[in-house]
Amino acid sequence: MSKAGKRTLVLLHASLLTLAALGTARLAADESPLLHVMLQGTSAEDMRSLAEAQGGTLTHYLPIINAVGAQLTRQQLDAIVDSGQVQRFIDDLALDDQPDEVQETEATCDVAGSVEILRGNDGFSWLLHNKRQTPASMTALDIAWPERLGKISSIRLGNTHLPPSAWQQQGGSSAAIQLPPGKTPQFSGRAELDVRFSNTDKAAAPLQSEYTVTASFGKDCQTKLIPGYANNSDDFYYSTVTSADELHKHQVTGRGVTVAVLDSGLWDHPALTRDTRGHNRVLARYDGITDSSENGVFDESGHGTHLTSVLAHSGKTLRNGQPTGSFKGIAPDANLVVVKAFNETGQGGMLDIVRGLQWVVDNREKYAIRVLNLSFSARPRWPYYLDPINQAVMRAWAEGITVVAAAGNEGPENMTVGSPGNLPYIITVGATTDSWTLHTRADDYIPDFSSRGPTPAAHIKPDLVAPGGHITGITRPGSSLTRDHPEYALPGGEFVMTGSSQAAAIVSGLVALLLQLEPDLTPDDVKCKLLGTAEPAINKDGLLAYSPFVQGYGSVSLTRAITLGERGCGNEELNIARDSAMEEHFEGPAIVDSEGNISLPGLSEMLSAEEPAKGASTTRVWGVKDHVERLPEDYRQPPEHPFAWHELYEMEKQKTENLTRDR
Ligand SMILES: [Ca+2]
Asked: 433 C-alpha vs ligand 1 centroid, how far in Å?
């Protein structure tokens, strides 16, 4: 595409709403409002001269994309555009928000139950949060419990005991309690729902997953207890699910690899600022909003701290009180560079983000930055190569930084992958969720929220999927996330979040582990290894359980990437140098018909007709090994089948055996 062509994409009308949101609107002496504008041209220096010659005020100096940000009056902007020296300007710098957080607890209204109960040997206590200004009245309670606990002996909401007549008539190990009008217990703020039983299990407090509880507050307002894990505080399960815990035991902890996290900042908790040996591992902090490294990067939102926890928490994993030899975060010894560009409400300015990206690229060698995590997403406004954030991200990739981005939380509709996840070069991550069963993969599935491809340029995204459901981490107490979602806080102080942001952080951590083992890998090599060894969801018929627009190449597997991964296949069909130079751009293989249906050549033969189950499935497994090994020995695949799973299986088995023998 020619450079002149870009002018057609310029937005000509600034929105006053946007200016107010940016906080930069003020009246100049001549009473004409100031616009916040990005000017892009031959160089940032030229753009600065243009803006300053007209009396504008420079806000951002962005040589990484040959641009500046400036405050200008409409007349000044018109004069700059008339000069013919600016190739492109954007006078509406609004970004769509980060993806909405995914609701972890199943609540249909603004009464929400906590993700974890306090378990007792004779019952439980569940903290409920009423986020309304008015009291909430509990109108019904459905509850099922392990039979060994006997019968209900008391139910209390806050200070109000339910009358025994409410449940006494019901036998068995479940009760559907309706509370008549006028007898509904009310609460404001928060209150415990405490349920006790006639028997005490002397051996152990029943697990949360042994209870089913739904509390109703009026007809359309329910909150349901999630099954949860047996241990949320000592053992963050995702390092087990991803096999990072086994690598930790072999001293593969991300040591020597620096990961930059561009998000809302960092809370200085020792498990985040120090590695497993107690040494400081935050090499630098930069605030792209204030353009400063001086004042730290205080995390008002809590989002950045949570991601960093998922990526790098250096606390020991405990089982039965004993250290297991592994750690809670994926890369507990990785060095960190913390870049802030998002504010208290999780919103980021485009130019602040670009400035943060520029700082990362400028300081890549100084801090040996090898990985960049981008857990944010905006609705794409431009072709991938014209998006200013994507332009800066392309520079980061070309400079040797492996960039991992969240796909977004806007599914299940097609074409919901956000920007920068729509950038073909980088690794874009969708989410899986495990149905709260660590050791069973057949019930792991891709939840609706995980954004789907293809991208507007027809590229297949996400590239792969990773755990993103109910992920435990730490975040700053008092941050906006903890204020908005008190129900996600665990009794032990951790915080549970769900989304592709967390899935991306897991993959960034895994990349750090891989780079510790093979420091000479290029970003393209990393992508080749991870995508080439990801485990697709396969149904019994040998067809894909999800389309590549949903699962990409499949579920990330670092152990497979280490043993079976190859180099040289990442982004082979693309050319980042020519793309960045605006000499050539690339379209992906997806086809969108006039009715908006999306497809790929051959997709209908490859994709299973069955609707994927959300949870336990009798047909879906993850990975070729699990698929082939579940088939009967005399199974013969029909000759016209599109996949040669058996051949692949034998090849991988051979390769693994050779590796074991060579050791
Ligand atoms: Ca599972």
From this structure: 7
- Centre of ligand 1 from the C-alpha of residue 441, in Å: 4
Q: How far from chain centre, in Å, is Cα 290?
A: 26
Q: Are the folds of 4-90 and 238-584 the same?
A: no
User: For residues 542 and 287, is the Cβ–Cβ distance under 8 A?
Assistant: no
CA 321 – ligand 1 centroid, Å:
24
pLDDT tens digit sequence for 94-145: 665 444 567 666 666 899 999 999 999 999 999 999 999 999 999 999 999 9
In angstroms, the CA 437 to CA 425 distance is 34
> CATH number of 238-584: 3.40.50.620, 3.90.79.10, 3.40.50.200, 3.40.190.290?
3.40.50.200
CATH, range 106-224:
2.60.40
Q: How far is the CA of 460 from the centre of ligand 1 (A)?
A: 26
φ and ψ of 578, to 5 deg: -70, -35
395: nearest Cα among 445, 361, 429: 361
Question: How far does residue 615's CA lie from ligand 1's centre (Å)?
Answer: 8
Q: Which residues contact 335 (CB under 8 A, 6 or more apart)?
A: 256, 257, 258, 259, 281, 282, 283, 367, 368
CATH 3.30.70.2740 fits 4-90, yes or no: no
Distance 216 CA to ligand 1 centre (A): 28
What is the per-residue pLDDT across 160-186, written as a single tens digit (0 to 9) for each?
Answer: 999 999 888 777 899 999 999 889 999
Name the residue ranges covered by the structural domains of the chain: 4-90, 106-224, 238-584
CB within 5 A of ion ligand 1: which residues? Answer: 434-435, 437, 440, 443-444
Q: Which residues contact 37 (CB under 8 A, 6 or more apart)?
A: 69, 70, 71, 72, 77, 89, 90, 91, 93
Q: Ligand 1 centroid vs 435 CA: distance in angstroms?
A: 5
pLDDT of residue 22: 32
Q: Report CA(494)–ligand 1 centroid distance (Å).
A: 22
DSSP letter at 164 equals G
Q: In the predicted model, what is the mean pLDDT of residues 585-603? A: 92
Find the 217 Cα to ligand 1 centroid distance in Å. 31
Whole-number pLDDT of residue 19: 28
- How far does the centroid of ligand 1 lie from the alpha carbon of residue 442, in Å? 6
